[in-house]
Amino acid sequence: MKAMVLAAGLGTRLRPLTDDRPKALVEVAGRTLLEITLARLRAFGIHDVIVNAHHFADKVISYLKERENFGMRIEVSREDVLLDTGGGLKKACWFFLEHSDELPKSDAEPFLLHNVDVVSTIDLQRMVQFHKDNRALATLAVQRRDSSRYLLFDEQLQLCGRKIGREAKAEIVRAAPKTDALAFSGIHIISPRLLTLMKEEGVFSIIDSYLRLAGSGEKIIAFRADEYYWRDLGKPADLQQAARDLEQGVFSA
């Protein structure tokens, strides 16, 4: 199985820590966010990873080279213009299609997409199996928690729309008698076939692709991760709390 780590963001909420380094190289208890993410993937059995980079990209490249890629095969997808999650994946799609003589089949081995600035204890093995059992195009780890952005799912856990802000009107792409608003956790399991269906170009969010495809009948589903620890490391206070959680053994890195 292969993976992509989304690490190209500017990390503006982490300033001043990101004034002289990329978000991926900000540390929690002496370990960079990139190292923590790669260790998590390696523990799961993933050894082929592509990392996108933009802000201080040279530092990411040097960091990986100095550490001999942590014993993994790691490619870097350098973005001269920040492409957002969908554009970043599309630029790096060659990594998941290499050695393929034909278009990906629906039962092809999925890959994992993971934000560099989240830590969790989400059971990736269980999530992958859930994805395969449901023959989904993409499976998104979600939780019931406060958020400024929600994805909407029906009773069969299929994506139906999104809602940004508490008072905003929901954007519905698939009619459903009842929807559940859940917060996305920045971890996806994706079937390679998605790469042939991404018609968006340039800078775009992968959520835009998911919504369009869900509206056309593709199966984008939710993996409920409420029982697991999860934290977004977008602000200095989040880093401090994660360091305390790490020290207390709430999660490992």
Which properties best describe this structure?
single chain; 253 residues; alpha/beta; 10-stranded mixed β-sheet; 8 helices; 14 strands
Task: Give an overview in words.
The chain has 253 residues and is an alpha/beta fold. 28% of the residues lie in helices and 26% in strands. The chain is built from eight helices and 14 strands. The strands form three sheets. Strands 1, 4, 5, 6, 8, 9, 10, 11, 12 and 13 form a ten-stranded mixed β-sheet that branches. The protein has a two-stranded antiparallel sheet with strand order 2-3. Strands 7-14 form a two-stranded antiparallel sheet. Strand 9 and strand 10 form a beta hairpin. The radius of gyration is 18 Å and the shape is globular. It starts with a strand and ends in a 6-residue tail after the last helix.
Question: What's the arrangement of secondary structure elements?
Answer:
Elements: E1 2-6, E2 27-28, E3 31-32, H1 33-43, E4 48-53, H2 57-66, E5 73-78, H3 84-91, H4 94-97, E6 111-115, E7 118-120, H5 124-133, E8 138-143, E9 149-153, E10 159-164, E11 171-172, E12 180-190, H6 193-197, H7 206-215, E13 220-224, E14 230-232, H8 236-247
Parallel strand pairs: 1-4, 1-6, 4-5, 8-13
Antiparallel strand pairs: 2-3, 6-12, 7-14, 8-12, 9-10, 9-12, 10-11
Helix pairs in contact: 3-7
Distance between the termini: 21 Å
Rounded to an integer in angstroms, the radius of gyration calculated over CA atoms is 18 Å
The averaged pLDDT comes out at 94
The arrangement of helices and strands along the chain is EEEHEHEHHEEHEEEEEHHEEH
Number of helical stretches of at least 4 residues: 8
Point out poorly predicted stretches: none
State the total count of DSSP E strands. 14
